[in-house]
Design goal:
single chain; 650 residues; alpha+beta; Heat Shock Protein 90; Ribosomal Protein S5, domain 2; Rossmann fold; 4 domains; 9-stranded mixed β-sheet; 22 helices; flat; disordered C terminus; binds ligand TSJ
Length: 650
């Protein structure tokens, strides 16, 4: 027997934590607010892994008054024994070793979740200090890490202050981690309770039985999430403001040794599809192979059932997948190993085996459900909904052909209202969609006509949430937008022919303006979603005030900034309040709102698709009180508005 020799595969190159500080973007994307929250999610992911695999049931997230955050679970506690080769405690290994990709503890868990998989060490590296407490086998252990600069100006990141030590006895088990994001890396930003609560709630929906507590020690705010119904509760939450076609969501769960699958769905009287998919607790906003599998299984199971039960006559054609998806709200939640994410934002599942798995198991479970006589009346409701959708599909097809026929006389007329840009390079061009004809005229005068096009909207475009696609397409304002953008819509959409890479909505800073803006966003969200997910949609911010006197002009974009501007002006200033875009002349509009060098735009993103879905439903749905409350809460596009401050771009 030959002596064991080392091969190159045995050599592990461990990059130091200092590398993380040199290139934080490589590990956490940005050093803005999002990146800082990333530090927290890394830690939460680790606690989630423990709980998902059956150890413990509660995670507590606390935002402390000193700006640090604490995450605690009641699992087994990170191993405290010595790592055989690294000669450090397990805790120290987790905290000081970069795990490019795979986690050191991967083999301990059936599925390891996590948004990013870069590991807790990245959080440590980018924190001023970190404290880890482990409760295990009757003892309480503690270790502290810190990052500092030495006398020579060299940075040392995530250095243990001392080895792990036992500091007492306890009856608890679990892990508690507290860290303070380093101001030198992130500037003076703080954790956002709403952002954290939104994700915590999502995790609680996706992991039936999980309890998550979040506390804000700064203002005493506290939330608790716990859903025994898991994704069925998620579906109910998503359709809260809609009219359901039957009472209880359909739910099934199936697993084998490599996969775990959960599906919950219901139908409402709406005309659109709302699907949300997750892989290892990560939202797959761009879809992927698992969604493809789910869709094929739905189409096949429901068509077979419709035929076998005479809902489809012999001479009638099969229903299409899109027919069965009209009005559906569905959550697909899978767990698997070796996930491959693809797409623009790395939120599209690429694994081919996920399609086969989801398709086979969904088919099996759906057929089982359909064949249960207790479900016959629900099944009939679903089939009838799909048949209704098929009927208008034909009509919609005709309307669609009309809008796609670019040279038809009708479309020629529509485009006449558009003042197009002279450059043919879409990447450099912008389209301003402007509320009102008169403001539209001013914008046309003020623009840089090489790159900026203007489309004035006469009235309010119709509400995309409440209409079927054929009605949406019959609307003149909507057709103007579609033909100007040149991509087509829905499943036929082709972003590569996009005529204007920035689509900028310019509306007045009042309730009407907010309404038009939300109607347009709803339309894009429903029918041209890639436009939003690829970051092409923006909201322009016109100023609210002009403070002026001799030799002094300052435009002010929010009430918060007004007192300072007045102070800078000194005595005898004049204050003008702009009620609408129409009150500025072309030059002023250019200077304040359109000049790429000076303006502020808000980039519209779908940070959390479920939330965006709720938002759109609330904006545009039937519940008028909810809509008013929502507009009052959020539709204030104040520059200081917390919600928007991360999306400012020029
Ligand atoms: F890593 C970390 F610091 F980010 C972190 C890890 C943070 C928090 C809040 C919790 C955790 C964590 C890790 N909770 N539970 C665990 N469990 C383990 O690491 C563990 C425990 C026992 C065994 C075992 O085989 O006995 C294995 C593992 C991986």
């Amino acid at each position: 027997m030959a002596e064991k020799t080392y091969e190159s595969k045995d050599i592990v190159v461990l990059e130091g934590l200092d590398a993380v500080r040199l290139r934080p973007g490589m590990y956490i994307g940005t050093t803005g607010s999002k990146g800082m929250h990333h530090l927290l999610w890394e830690i939460v992911d680790n606690a989630m892994d423990e709980i998902s695999n059956g150890y413990g049931d509660t995670i507590t997230i606390t935002l402390n008054t000193d700006g640090s955050a604490t995450v605690e679970d009641n699992g087994r506690g990170i191993p405290v024994d010595m790592h055989p080769t690294l000669k450090k405690s397990g805790v120290e290994v987790v905290y000081t070793t970069l795990h490019a990709g795979g986690k050191f503890n991967n083999s301990n868990y059936k599925f390891s979740g996590g948004l990013h998989g870069v590991g807790a060490s990245v959080t440590n590296a980018l924190s001023k200090w970190c404290k880890v407490v482990v409760y295990k086998a009757g003892k309480e252990y503690e270790i502290n890490f810190h990052s500092f600069m030495d006398e020579d100006g060299k940075m040392h990141s995530g250095i243990p202050v001392a080895p792990l030590k036992c500091i007492g006895s306890t009856t608890k088990t679990g892990t508690r981690v507290t860290f303070l994001p380093d101001e030198d890396m992130f500037g003076n930003i703080s954790f956002n309770f709403e952002t954290i609560a939104r994700r915590a709630k999502e995790l609680a929906f996706l992991n039936k039985g999980l309890k998550i507590v979040i506390k804000n020690e700064i203002d005493g705010q506290e939330e608790f999430y716990h859903y025994e119904g898991g994704i069925s509760d998620f579906v109910n939450y998503l359709v809260e403001e809609k009219t359901k076609l039957f009472a209880k969501p359909v739910y099934f769960h199936a697993e084998d040794k490599n996969f775990d699958l959960e599906v919950a769905f219901t139908y409402t009287d709406s005309y659109t599809e709302n699907s949300f998919s997750f892989v290892n607790n990560i939202p797959t906003v761009e879809g992927g192979t698992h969604e493809t599998g789910l869709r094929s299984a739905f189409t096949k199971a429901l068509n077979d059932y419709a035929r076998a039960n005479n809902f489809l006559k012999e001479k009638e054609a099969n229903l299409l997948g899109e027919d069965f998806r009209e009005g559906i709200t569905v959550v697909l939640n899978i767990k698997m190993n070796n996930v491959q994410f693809e797409g623009q934002t790395k939120t599209k599942l690429g694994n081919p085996e996920a399609k086969t798995f989801v398709e086979n198991l969904t088919l099996q479970e759906l057929v089982k459900w359909l064949n249960d006589k207790n479900n016959a009346s629900t099944a009939e409701i679903i089939i009838n909904k799909a048949k209704g959708a098929a009927k208008v599909r034909e009509a919609a097809k005709k309307a669609k052909e009309l809008t796609r026929a670019k040279n038809s006389a009708e479309n020629f007329n529509l485009v006449g209202k558009l003042a197009s840009a002279s450059s043919r390079n879409g990447a450099l061009c912008e389209l301003f969609i402007v509320e009102g004809n008169s403001a539209g005229g001013t914008v046309k005068q003020g623009r840089d006509r090489r790159y900026q096009a203007v489309l004035p909207l006469r009235g309010k475009p119709l509400n995309a949430e409440k209409k079927r696609i054929d009605q949406v397409l019959a609307n003149e304002e909507i057709r103007m937008i579609i033909s100007a953008l040149n991509t087509g819509i829905g499943e036929d959409m082709d972003l590569s022919s996009l005529r204007y890479h920035k689509v900028i909505i310019l509306s007045d800073a009042d309730q009407d303006g907010a309404h038009i803006r939300s109607i347009l966003l709803t339309f894009f969200y429903r029918y041209m979603r890639p436009l939003i997910t690829d970051g092409h949609v923006f909201i322009g911010l016109p100023p609210l005030y002009k403070v002026a006197k001799k030799d002094f002009v300052e435009y002010v974009y929010s009430d918060v900034e007004l007192p300072d501007a007045i102070a800078r002006a000194g005595k005898n200033y004049t204050l003008q309040r702009y009620k609408g875009l129409g009150e500025m002349n072309a030059e002023q509009l250019w200077e304040t709102t359109m000049d790429p060098e000076k303006r502020t735009l808000i980039q519209v993103s779908i940070d959390d698709a479920a939330d965006a879905e709720k938002m759109v439903t609330t904006w545009m749905g039937d519940d008028i009180d909810a809509r008013k409350a929502y507009i009052n809460l959020h539709a204030n596009f104040d520059k200081e508005d917390d919600f928007y401050k991360n999306y400012k771009v020029r």
